[in-house]
């Protein structure tokens, strides 16, 4: 830490917090980010892994949100091409549910609400005899959206912030905050158990599902906004379709469920919308959600899934605005964001972030900085729309980046080259750095290498095997127990980063 007195202090290391920290630091402000656990250890790591406009939001007339999300889809394809990649979605037409004319009208709006540069338009399709779907589903539609490595998107934004001189303080739990003349005094518990005191002109609460708990620790906060916690659960099963297309399935209750390619051998099925009470870190899928997802997939696909086909499941808690929507079903509560500014009579400002989604994090950050601008008149202009995220600096195409990495390190298997580019972009060169053979990369832990693990510790704030296996990578899925134990033994021998 270069200083303990900041212009902006952000609480929460999810996508919103990391995005705000990066934007603020790049405008010449001094910034600190406090995260009680690891980066992306909450909602941001347990999403459906999509950057999308939100086709179903059109049914709720959320045209502003969809338009903004569609525009951001293009921005993210440009600034993070290694993390955000195009994906075609197939929507089987289900007789008795949404009529075909309604779907065509929705897809027309989806294609034209915002300028589309990189992705092909939607069109009707016919499923042939080789389709993974049951024979009764022979007509449908196809449209474009994108997939994303959600937790790596968070880390990339934290890296961007750090490279603009922000202090990224993971595993620092905020204890209390109170207004002082000219700003805030914030106390945080460091990993060593010591109390750290930080002074800041402005305070941003981007704690996601913990936003109310943080507000309760801020002396003088008068916020009466309520948050509705909604659980979304996903299943990972063996790949249901050999193609690289995703599916969007309609349910009788009006909801939709995605089936998305995940890695090379799996399909991700999700999500549910279930109101949740309790600790967001203790959230788990329940039997009713499993049955809901499996039953729907089995209605559409020829491969019939039983519970034993589930290889892994994960759940996250989405913090949605309650507002006047208390009586609505969870699936109908808006995914839009709301920024609440508390600034009583000339005192230091507190900005709380309610809601939001991965796709619009950058616009949310710009909106947050606009709210803070009157208190920080020295801040520079918005800049992140053209700022490539770390690893994407000079990528013209993924295929070219993979070819160049393969040429530089011919001993790497092609599947490894693809994984490295999709995770690190061109920053894979930073830790490969002159290696002549696999042995130069040190011991391996499943698909990961010791030199790679060292890089994650030094440059990406990773500390534990969970950080590495489930957030910095997805290597935990299918990893042998002996490899996990070997990684944990290796980490115990490493000095703190």
From TrEMBL:
GO molecular function: glycerol-3-phosphate dehydrogenase (quinone) activity
EC primary class: oxidoreductase
UniProt record similarity statement: Belongs to the FAD-dependent glycerol-3-phosphate dehydrogenase family.
Protein encoded by which gene: glpD
Annotated ranges, domain Alpha-glycerophosphate oxidase C-terminal: 384-478
Catalysed reactions, semicolon-separated: a quinone + sn-glycerol 3-phosphate = dihydroxyacetone phosphate + a quinol
Domain FAD dependent oxidoreductase: 7-361
Record-linked InterPro entries: DAO_C, DAO_C_sf, FAD-dep_OxRdtase, FAD/NAD-bd_sf, G3P_DH_FAD-dep
Region forming the signal peptide: none
Pfam families: DAO, DAO_C
Cofactor or coenzyme needed: FAD
EC number: 1.1.5.3
Protein's name in the database: Glycerol-3-phosphate dehydrogenase
Keywords: FAD, Flavoprotein, Oxidoreductase
Domain of life: Bacteria
